[in-house]
Amino acid sequence: LKAAKAKRAHPDWDVKIHFCIYQLDAEHVVTACEEAGKAGVKVDVVYHFAQVAQVDVEAAKTEAAQLARGNVVFTKMQWGEGSSEQMHNKFLLVNRTKAHHNVTYVSTANVDGSAKKLKWQQSGISVYDHEGLYNAYLQYHEVIKRHAHDLAGFRQYMYHNNLNFDDGAVSAYFMPIPKQEPWGPQNPLAAVLLEFEHQLHQHPQDSVVAMNMAFFRCDDLGSKLIDQLQSMKQLAASQGKTFTMKSTIMSEEEGNPFPDFDQKQSNVHTHTKNYSLALLDSKVYVTLTGSTNCKKNDHCSKANNYLLIRETGDHHPVYDAFQDIQHSVHA
Q1: DSSP secondary structure letter of residue 273
Q2: Is the pTM of this model over 0.85?
Q3: Above 50 in pLDDT, residue 53?
Q4: How far apart are the first and last CA of the chain?
Q5: Contacts of 66 (CB under 8 A, 6+ apart)
Q6: pLDDT (tens digit, 9 = 90+) per residue, 310-326?
Q7: Between these two residues, 196 and 253, which has the higher pLDDT value?
Q8: Do 303 and 88 touch, CB atoms closer than 8 A?
Q9: 295 to 105, 191, 309: CA distances (angstroms)
Q10: Neighbouring residues of 161: CB distance < 8 A, sequence distance ≥ 6
Q11: What is the pLDDT of residues 209-247, one digit of tens each?
Q12: Which residues, 6+ apart, have CB-to-CB distance to 263 below 8 Å?
């Protein structure tokens, strides 16, 4: 609606919205797309499925596209309904070319009524006027849309083309990655933890890893994560330093996967996929979020993304905010 308002106020602006969402089941969002299209905003929505409840969302999308003078396009993924066949992303891009303004919004939430009705915990980050990040997500959106009927082709493209972006402070990582490398350099969590362990060898200090996760699986990826955390804990102990690992997991298949660490069950339904990591003496703070659960198939089979924010020094508001999110599930 803000994009529509901006377009009406500045008809010469080229305003575009690109939306990539796993579950689209909210009439008000479809209506907002329609209103934006009527105002002249180009709206390009890619979604995996719409689980129609009280509202016929499919019919509403068709009507919106017709009423919006062709400015609204909905593309439904035809990849299948299995867990490993999902286009699982949740991100929104807005661009106003003549205003030199763009927004990249990355969320853990689908567009449906469950989060509000059941008081699910979600999170999201908006990054403003970052052209490199915006263009990286835009390219990923285009690749997904181009392969809407070809999951095998999409996977092969992603396995052989690195679309990731990194400027040292803000990074984006796009899934899937090759199945033989679930815990390799293309996995940002693995990369950050290995970097932190290297720094701990060079400069012993207290460190923190916190995980607030909807789904965890002790597969090839999950077991490597546990091994990595154990290694860092043992290193810290040998140095007389503290390694603090806190996890909040909504659903796991093998009971408590972290018996040697501080794990808590959430008091609410956490749907987040968040990590907060810190080297306290070096004052390095890393926040990871996005649509990617801690499972191998989320990394190696599905379409998913990570957004990474790196902060240094005494001011780290993103890290602090995501720590508050994790603490809130136990309040």
Answers
A1: E
A2: yes
A3: no
A4: 34
A5: none
A6: 999 999 999 999 998 87
A7: 196
A8: yes
A9: 23, 16, 21
A10: 143
A11: 999 988 888 899 999 999 999 999 999 999 999 999 988
A12: 246, 247, 248, 249, 256, 257
Answer whether 106's CB lies under 8 Å from 289's CB: yes
Q: Residue 279: enclosing H or E segment and its boundaries?
A: strand 273-279
Give me the percent of the chain exceeding a pLDDT of 90. Answer: 59
Helix residue ranges, H only, the chain? 2-9, 27-38, 57-67, 114-117, 131-146, 151-160, 188-202, 220-239, 296-300, 317-328
What is the per-residue pLDDT across 111-138, written as a single tens digit (0 to 9) for each?
Answer: 876 555 567 788 999 999 999 999 999 9
Of the candidates 200, 218, 146, 143, the one whose C-alpha atom is nearest the C-alpha of residue 175 is: 143
Q: Which amino acid does the sequence have at 87?
A: M
Tell me which H or E stretch contains 249.
strand 243-252
Edge-to-edge strands, sheet with 207-216: 165-166, 170-174, 305-312, 284-290, 273-279, 207-216, 243-252, 262-264
Residue with tokens 């479809």, as numbered in its chain? 30
Amino acid symbol at 314: D
Q: Which amino acid is at 35?
A: E
> How far is CA 150 from its chain centroid?
22
Listed in sequence order, the residues at least 6 apart from 175 whose beta carbon sits closer than 8 Å to its beta carbon are 158, 292, 298, 299, 300, 302, 303, 304, 305, 306
Burial (CB count <10 Å: 0-12, 13-18, 19+), residue 7:
buried
Three-state secondary structure string covering 164-185? CEECCCEEEEECCCCCCCCCCC
Range 59-82 average pLDDT: 75
pLDDT tops 70 at residue 60: no
Residue 134, token pair as written in the block:
């915006």
Residue 249: which of 218, 280, 282 has the closest Cα? 218
pLDDT tens per residue, range 11-42: 888 889 999 999 887 777 888 888 888 888 89
Under 8 Å between Cβ of 165 and 307 = no
Helix, strand or coil, per DSSP, at residue 49:
strand
Place of tokens 């993304």: 305
